[in-house]
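Technical note accompanying the year-one report. For the benefit of new consortium partners, we illustrate the data format agreed upon in the data management plan: each record pairs a sequence with a structure-token string. No post-processing was applied to the example shown here.
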Amino acid sequence: MQYNIIGQTVPAVEIKLNKGESVYTQTGGMTYQTEGIKMSTNAHGGIIRSLGRMFTGESIFMSNFEGEQDGATVAFASTVPGDIIPVDLSTIPQGLIIQKGSFLCAEQNVDIKVAFTKKLTAGFFGGEGFILQRATGNGMIFLEIDGDPIEKVLAPGEVIKVDTGNVVAFEPTVSYKVEMVKGLGNIFFGGEGLFLTRLVGPGKVILQTQNFADFAGRLIPFLPVNRGD
């Protein structure tokens, strides 16, 4: 399998498949394809696992694209302005924890299942939902980034506090906790929200400079309102 990430504002990953090679994505995730691609839709990983994906905000069903001839091409585009990061999971034996909405597409030998956070506070207040996803396997997975990506490798015990929603993915060796912002003045007037995500190394962390949900929320006051007659 060969791939090429094209575009800058709203990029796409163009994947060239040989006969028998295949990738999968959420339903509706494909942008274009050439002749020689066979598409099928199923509950990838079984019904139980697909129902788990529903709680993460992903599609219950996945679309599979298989090459019927060498050199067939299929492309998947990001949904908002940002970037696409390719991750070779064969270099991360323990896999990768990813937030809902960051999965774009992957090879068939990549397995994605729900992963419960260790702390209940992360689910109730973290903004990522109580259930995250864990991707494992020996293939490529492509992650969708809002804005620009920031990759950091945390040393053992090293701490980084991130505005919730700007966390894209991290290795399972990184501990994940959500904590309340300290100080009444910061809580009521700081404008940063009540909670921060605390990530503690060791391990790799992928962040994003934009949180599209927050961006969309800031646009609401400027949208026209239909007040009726």
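Partners are asked to follow this layout when depositing records. Residues 122-130, 183-191 have pLDDT under 50 and may be disordered.
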